[in-house]
Amino acid sequence: MVPSFTWLLILDFLVGTVAAVVIVVVVVAVVVVVVVEVVVVVVVAVVVPVVVAVAVVVVVVVVVVVVVVVVVVVVVVVVVVVVIA
Fold first, then answer.
1. Rounded distance, CA 77 to CA 71, Å?
2. Percent of the chain beyond pLDDT 90?
3. Is the pLDDT of residue 69 over 90?
4. What is the DSSP string of 3-61?
5. Whole-number pLDDT of residue 81
């Protein structure tokens, strides 16, 4: 039995629809992958150095504060010892 022209049109429509859906899914997947890659690159290029810079500043500030406190304590101890002596 030879399929009628109508069935060929319906089959053509279904195949075209499936192909269109597959193309859209592939394009969306590619766009998602590209967006994720861009976000990862931005995070690695911008956020990581900022976090490292902030960490370095915090460490430097803590070290400076500790050094200042130690110097003040030593000066106070020396002054007290000199005054008592």
1. 10
2. 55
3. yes
4. PPHHHHHHHHHHHHHHHHHHHHHHHHHHHHHHHHHHHHHHIIIIIHHHHHHHHHHHHHH
5. 83
Which two structure tokens, joined as six digits, stand for 13?
């429509």
Q: What's the CA gap between 44 and 39, in Å, rounded?
A: 9
pLDDT of residue 4: 77
Say how many Å lie between the first and final Cα of the chain, rounded: 122
User: Residue 57 and residue 59: Cα distance in Å, rounded?
Assistant: 5
pTM: 0.52
Q: Is 52 exposed, middle or buried (0-12, 13-18, 19+ CB in 10 A)?
A: exposed
> DSSP letter at 69?
H
Phi-psi category of 51—alpha, beta or left, where left has phi over 0 and alpha has psi -120 to 50?
alpha
